[in-house]
Design a protein that fits this description.
The chain is an alpha+beta fold and 476 residues long. Helix content is 66%, strand content 8%.
């Protein structure tokens, strides 16, 4: 019996050697991150880092500290967030998962060893049966599986890059909102103080019998409303700050950062007349992602068709020793018969997935064109309104205040009219700040389109049907 087992082991040595070669494959969980980092730097001008553990690398931590200690800018806030946000670090894990699937797709199935001991009811010596089998077609399907996995890995890399760019735009928009909230808070505080002064003057005039109870009640109502609006502005400023803290991933002493509380004015340079629509299409990462989904669906369909009728054939060796004879050795083959399942449903599903990917590609192209035109209109409109406020309305309000001051000095108008002119000037300044905020938010969306991504408000991202894709075994 021992000699027979030795013969079987020798005959199967070549099988184990073949499987040992494929078992040496390793998984680089950081594969693809270098390309993501280079793409983000080229498109957004920012640096990303992937933590090797729970803490930042020393160089990244030092840069975060330096940015938070100085006057924080929009670009600085984006850089801190890209280095320090843990949700972003979790997103990079998708690259490791896709790389693991790619390595798995290149592995052969493990051999299957069968053994049985059959005892005779008549009391004779038991029969021994031994068998080992490997999948014959599995080796032929490995290149097809690897092409499918490679296409999905590239799709994942594009998706991760797009996610980083989306996140950078979200941080930049949050910074502009917080900056506008800080300036708006300052203006609302000034308005509340002006209305409180107006109310005090009104009380004195009322006590002197110069204004009616109705006029005093109106002045008090305006003053009380301004206090409510000021309280809302205080909460809004704190909320916008905490939102930015969360995006940058800071806490404790790191949240003591400071910014310039004034929103920058609209640039004075001439309006650019470039073709934003064409530029958006040329640089669109969403379009590349959609095209890669077509490639992945096409590779998947090819694999499904190849493995539809005969997904597997097992080839091996069977050895048997009965109670009265020596060992018997011979080849064995196992082939599934495609009687009930001939792969027609899987092929049909793959074809539908491919058609869906093709239609989504054209839908993304249309959405990019529409978004580029719409965002460009938003930028132009906000720029024109901001310049109108700065060049016409604000100087006009300042002139009205100056004229009111002159007339008050000449005793031609009362103090209430003077204070009202000042309040209207501050309200115009608040409207100007709101317009500046709209301009910088629109500019952020335009920059996002120029970097190759669609703003979130333009429609659903590509990949919404990703979970519905057929999940073929990547390897065993």
């Amino acid at each position: 019996m021992r000699r027979g087992l030795t013969v079987v082991a020798r005959r199967m040595t070549w099988v184990w050697l073949l499987l040992g070669v494929t078992g040496c494959a390793s998984v680089d969980l950081r594969a693809g991150f270098t390309e993501v980092a280079a793409d983000v730097e080229q498109r957004a001008g920012s640096t990303v880092a992937w933590m090797g553990g729970p803490d930042l690398e020393p160089a990244a931590a030092a840069r975060v500290r330096a940015l938070l200690q100085g006057k924080l800018t929009a670009a600085g806030a984006v850089q801190v967030a890209l280095l320090n946000n843990r949700d972003l670090q979790a997103l990079y894990a998708d690259l490791g998962v896709a790389q693991a699937d790619l390595v798995q797709a290149g592995l052969f199935k493990n051999p299957v060893v069968d053994a049985a001991v059959l005892f005779s009811l008549s009391g004779t010596r038991p029969d021994l049966q031994l068998g080992v089998a490997v999948s014959l077609l599995d080796a032929l399907y490995v290149p097809l599986r690897k092409r499918v996995a490679a296409a999905r890995f590239e799709e994942t890399r594009l998706r991760v890059t797009g996610g980083v760019l989306d996140f950078a735009a979200e941080v930049r928009a949050a910074f502009h909102r917080h900056q506008a909230s800080e300036q708006m808070l300052e203006l609302r505080r000034t308005i509340a103080e002006a209305l409180a002064a107006t109310l005090e003057v009104s009380r004195r005039l009322h006590d002197a019998g110069n204004i009616s109870d109705l006029d005093l009640a109106r002045e008090r109502a305006q003053a009380e409303v301004s206090r409510v609006v000021l309280r809302a502005a205080e909460v809004d400023a704190r909320q916008s700050r905490e939102l930015l803290n969360g995006l940058m991933g800071v806490w404790g002493e790191q949240t003591r950062w400071e910014i310039d509380p004034r929103v920058p004015d609209v640039p004075d340079g001439p309006v650019e007349t470039r073709d934003a629509e064409r530029a958006a299409l040329d640089r669109s990462l969403d379009l590349l992602h959609a095209r890669q989904r077509i490639v992945a669906a096409s590779q998947q369909l090819g694999y499904t068709r190849a493995a539809a009728l005969v997904p597997d054939v097992d080839l091996g060796v069977e050895a048997e020793k009965d109670g009265g004879e020596g060992w018997k050795l011979g080849p064995a083959v196992s082939i599934p018969l495609p009687i009930f399942d001939q792969g027609q449903a899987r092929i049909a599903r793959g074809a539908v997935e491919l058609r869906r990917a093709q239609q989504e590609y054209y839908a993304v192209a249309v959405r990019i064109r529409s978004a580029a035109r719409a965002v460009q209109d938003r930028v132009d409109g906000a720029r024109d309104r901001a310049r109108f406020y700065k060049d016409i309305l604000l100087p006009l309000r300042e002139r009205i205040v100056n004229e009111a001051q002159l007339q008050y000095n000449a005793m031609q108008i009362g103090v209430l009219q003077l204070l009202r002119a000042r309040e209207e000037q501050i309200e115009t300044a608040a409207a100007y700040v709101a317009t500046l905020r709209e301009y910088w938010l629109a500019s952020t969306d335009l920059a996002l389109i120029a970097s190759g991504r669609l703003p979130a408000a333009t429609g659903p991202r590509m990949g919404g049907g990703g979970d519905a894709r057929p999940k073929e075994p990547a390897g065993h």
